[in-house]
Each structure stands twice: as C-alpha cells, then as structure tokens.
Design goal:
With 165 residues, the chain is α+β, with helices and mostly antiparallel strands. The chain is built from 3 helices and 11 strands; from the N terminus they run αββββαββββββαβ.
C-alpha cells in the first residue's frame, strides 16, 4: 500500500472499531540470498527485527500484498514468490501494537530467492534492512521470525509440502 496507514483499509477500519481486536489477512515474505541468509527488517513500530510483511488492501490478491509490502519495506521486487505456508495461530499470531490496537494475523508465507532493486529501508515501516545467517538471527526479533523460518525449513525438507503454523 502506498500512502499512509490512515488511508489504508485497516486504517479506515480502525476509525470505526478503534483498538478492538480484528482478524486481518496479510502476507510475510522470507527473502533468502544465495548464501542462505534471510532478510529481516527493523520494524518502525516495535523497533524489533521481523519479516517484510503487511495487511491486505481491498482489491489486492495475497500475492499482490506480499509484493507490495516487500517493495515498500525493502526496495526489492521479487521475481517470483513461492507460497510455503500459512500462519494463523491465535496466540503466536496475535499482535498488540504499542498504541494498543490488537490484530490477529492470518498470513500467507512466501519465499523469494530472486529479486530486482536495491536494498533500502523506507524510514517508517522499516528502519533498517539486513541479511542474517539463519543460525545467527538477532535476539531482538518479533515472535513470528523463528517459527516462520522453521516452517520454511520444514517445507524444504518435505520436498515442498505446504506448512500450516
């Protein structure tokens, strides 16, 4: 979504429901480079490392959502996105934002290994963007990072069986 949170679908919905819990479809993207490192962003809201991710907008497919969030937050345009899993755990995928809004995320997990563009943070949703070795992830990370990466590892080990987490 280009523009402000206020103009987004979720922003418009928040004007009506306030901070009450909301179920929200979205996408997260695991970008993996040739060295097996994964791309994380330092999120502007929590100041923690997390996946490029975001909520769907009206009129977007879930793949459109993944592509838009990846490009907005990292400057990268995925050449292809492979759906590897889906996250919807009522505890693990519950997000309480610093200002009090609560969201239950239903997130399609995509994997990207080829992209165009130059890596950069947007200064708002992403404060920093970096590749990390999978065995040396930062300690100050969001809750979904590790279990999402584990889903990708299970997906690969299974020969491509879609993961529900």
């Amino acid at each position: 979504m280009s523009g402000s949170f206020t103009d987004s679908y979720l922003g418009q919905l928040r004007k009506i429901i306030g901070p009450r819990p909301v179920l929200m479809p979205g996408a997260r993207v695991i970008v993996e480079n040739a060295d097996g490192e994964v791309l994380l962003i330092r999120r502007g809201d929590f100041k923690l490392w997390g996946w490029p991710a975001g909520s769907a907008e009206m009129g977007q497919t879930i793949e459109d959502t993944a592509r838009a969030e990846l490009e907005e937050e990292t400057g990268l345009a995925a050449r292809s996105l492979v759906p590897v899993g889906f996250a919807s755990d009522p505890v693990e995928d519950r997000v309480e934002y610093p200002h009090g809004d609560v969201l239950y995320a239903f997130s399609m997990i995509f994997h990207a290994t080829e992209w165009d563009g130059d890596l950069r943070a947007d200064g708002h949703e992403s404060l920093d963007v970096r590749f990390f070795p999978q065995d040396a992830l930062p300690e100050d990370r969001t809750r979904p990072v590790l279990r999402t990466l584990e889903a990708l590892q299970r997906y690969k080990a299974s020969g491509g069986v879609f993961q529900l987490i």
